[in-house]
Amino acid sequence: MSRLLPANHPGFAPVTVPTNQYQAPSGWRWNKLSDLARLESGHTPSRSRPDWWGGDVSWISLTEIRRLDGRWTEETRIKTNPEGIAHSAARILPRGTVCLSRTASVGFVTIMAKPMATSQDFANWVCSDELAPEFLMYALICSREHLRSLATGATHKTIYMPTLEQFRICAPPRPEQERIVRRLRDQLAVAESARLAAEAQLKEIQRLPERILATAFGDGERGT
């Protein structure tokens, strides 16, 4: 049952499990995520077979997911090949598949820009026409801290498949999803520009003591 709290409440997560559903905004509705997207897992071809690695099939792994977070993945540094795929439970998934890291580094999200595979550390959703991949990516990122609270395990926290199968998503119709995605792209681009500018200013500030000292000692030399 949905909680009687508004969607703009600080605890609202657009992707969650049934016990944490908040009241949907007007025009939005809660759906079981697996009704809008096919859930797939990944796999790792045997590391003892170097001939199954280094091919042309991009393979998303935890080693790269922080770099890929929040963007479309065009290519990965680690690659497998058709032989590696054929001799493992790994599957090549289509462009637009949304990948969520669910083990150890929980909660990072990327979208496949072309067919590729992932390790078993990911939950992958192949979206139907009712769900825009970028909308799902941003919804998962928005829900990141909450989703991490669903991970269990003593050594490495993991969101297990039975929990993933229970995921619900709060979403409007597809045209509104795409409008939201366009707005988010613009706003996030502005935020990224501001971040880069702030980093550049911080670097200049960090150089100030060195420059002050250099000026002081330089002036001292000229005064002798």
In words, what does this structure look like?
The chain is of the alpha+beta class and 224 residues long. The chain folds into two domains: 15-172, DNA methylase specificity domains (Adenine-n6-DNA-methyltransferase TaqI, Chain A, domain 2, Alpha-Beta Complex), CATH 3.90.220.20; 173-224. Helix content is 38%, strand content 20%. It contains seven helices and eleven strands. It has helices at residues 33-36, 62-68, 82-86, 133-142, 144-149, 161-164, 174-223; strands at residues 15-16, 29-32, 37-41, 53-60, 71-73, 79-80, 98-101, 109-112, 117-118, 122-127, 168-171. The strands form three sheets. A five-stranded mixed sheet has the order 3-10-7-8-5, sandwiched between helices. The longest helix has 50 residues, at 174-223. It is globular and about 70 Å long. The model has no long low-confidence stretch (mean pLDDT 90).
Whole-Å distance between the termini? 82 Å
Weakly predicted, low-confidence segments: none
For the sheet with most strands, the description reads: 5 strands, mixed
Shape: globular
Number of self-contained structural domains: 2
* CATH classification class of the largest domain: Alpha Beta
Structural class: alpha+beta
Multimeric state: single chain
If helices are DSSP runs of H or I spanning 4 or more residues, what is the number of helices?
7
What would CATH call the architecture of the largest domain?
Alpha-Beta Complex
> What Rg, in angstroms, do the CA atoms define?
22 Å
What's the CATH H-level superfamily name of the largest domain?
Answer: DNA methylase specificity domains
The total of beta strands comes to 11
Fold-level CATH name of the largest domain: Adenine-n6-DNA-methyltransferase TaqI, Chain A, domain 2
Percent strand = 15-25%
What is the H-and-E element order? EEHEEHEEHEEEEHHHEH
| Strand neighbour order, sheet with most strands | 3-10-7-8-5
Instruction: Indicate the mean pLDDT.
Output: 90
- How helix-rich are the residues, as a percent range? 25-40%
